[in-house]
Design goal:
Number of helices: 10
Distance between the termini: 19 Å
Radius of gyration: 18 Å
Helix content: 25-40%
Shape: elongated
Order of helices and strands: HEHEHEEHEEEEEEEHHEEHHHH
Number of strands: 13
């Protein structure tokens, strides 16, 4: 616990010293697949000179530019934001079997296969140790360079070790929004993993070896399996 808090505080301090870089956004899953990213700076149309900043609080990310029009679009309409080499998906319209996720802001995602996204999200009541981020990170805006510095120092930016990932679960995004604007996602649970690994007995056995349902389905167990399967880059999270 102390180690986690130390890394978080260190990450926050490093972010305060860094310089801003360009953030990009896309409006739909199709835009993501096509690589149609646009600069957030262009979105503000010169109305502000403030760089796009990222804030982590209550287990979700938010992006702010200081421009009301741009901030509203990023909050309510954008599908994803690329910050440095990392992708953050807007959970506002994501649904699992028609049900909201536990967060409405952005969360970290990694590319899955050639044209899909693996989204990591966590239940607020399960990530209790993150709720006290007022110790250092809550309210601390960071920029792209800071994120890169944080990754070089230790585990990837805000991915503070296995304890963090053990509280996250994975969702697959592989389609555009439905007519109502909602985006269906698939939970990477036991059924999903068993189908995925149906012809790979060693990996399936490795997945099941994690023990109880919570441990098996946690991102800390699922992501390494996806990496070994070649569906997620080995440099995407660690």
């Amino acid at each position: 616990m102390k180690k986690n808090v130390f890394v978080l505080v260190l990450f926050c301090c490093l972010s305060m010293m860094a310089h801003a870089e360009i953030a990009k956004y896309c409006m739909s899953y199709s835009d993501f697949v096509a690589g149609n990213w646009k600069s957030v700076d262009e979105l503000t149309q010169g109305r502000t000179k403030q760089a796009c900043q990222m804030k982590f609080n209550n287990n979700q990310f938010r992006f702010k530019t200081g421009d009301k029009v741009a901030d509203k679009l990023l909050k309510k309409e954008a599908f994803a934001v690329m910050y440095g080499e990392h992708i953050y998906v807007n959970c506002r319209n994501l649904r699992v079997n028609g049900t909201y996720l536990d967060i409405s802001g952005y969360t970290h995602a990694v590319c899955y296969g050639k044209d899909k996204l693996c989204v990591m999200a966590y239940k607020n009541h399960d990530a209790s140790f993150l709720l006290g981020l007022g110790l250092g990170l809550a309210g601390c805006f960071v920029d792209n360079t800071a994120l890169k510095v944080g990754m070089e120092v230790g585990s990837i930016g805000l991915w503070v070790g296995n304890e963090y990932l053990s509280r996250a679960v994975c969702y697959l995004v592989d389609s555009d929004a439905q007519p109502d604007g909602k985006i269906a996602t698939t939970r990477m649970n036991d059924d999903f993993m068993e189908k995925l690994l149906n012809n790979d007995a060693p990996l399936l056995e490795k997945y099941k070896a994690a023990g109880n349902k919570h441990n098996r389905q946690s991102a800390s167990n699922v992501l390494p399996i996806l990496m070994e399967k070649g569906l997620v880059s080995t440099s995407a999270v660690y």
